[in-house]
Design a protein that fits this description.
This protein is mainly alpha-helical. It has a single domain, classed as Serine Threonine Protein Phosphatase 5, Tetratricopeptide repeat (Alpha Horseshoe). The protein has 6 helices and no strands. The N terminus is likely disordered.
Length: 141
């Protein structure tokens, strides 16, 4: 079994704490997360929901593809940006995850789920970067 390094394991363990936001009414914490009523917004919501479905089966590459498509169809969809952040985080694309979470938070600043995901990720990511810097300094000595 492959073991993750400590900093990477720390970030990866937080993925379990992140919240995927689906398209059902029960999953939407506020009206601010509703997809727009345009055709692109409706299709974006469908792609987002399908991404949540495949992610729940562990198909993270497919989920990321669906969320990228959802963002492309409706760049104002905060759920898709949040979920894309989760997928990027899972795949170790931490800079991309940070950008996706920040965009989601800008689009839906009152969403507690998005804020929680952003804050948990940012805390773990900052910790990882500090450990990486400390390790690099130690190697130079």
């Amino acid at each position: 079994m492959h073991r993750l390094t400590t900093p990477l394991r720390t970030v990866a363990s937080l993925v379990a704490a992140t919240v995927l936001i689906g398209g059902s009414a029960a999953a939407q914490p506020s009206a601010a997360l509703d997809a727009s009523t345009s055709a692109g917004g409706e299709r974006s919501g469908q792609e987002n929901s399908f991404g949540v479905e495949v992610a729940s089966k562990g198909l993270w590459k497919e989920a990321a593809y669906r969320w990228e498509k959802a963002v492309e169809l409706d760049p104002q969809n905060p759920r898709a940006h949040n979920n894309l952040g989760v997928a990027y985080e899972r795949s170790g694309k931490f800079e991309e995850a940070l950008e996706a979470y920040e965009t989601a938070l800008e689009l839906a600043p009152s969403s507690e789920q998005i804020r929680q995901n952003y804050e948990l990720f940012r805390e773990a990511y900052e910790r990882k970067k500090r450990k990486d810097r400390d390790a690099a300094r130690s190697r130079r000595r």
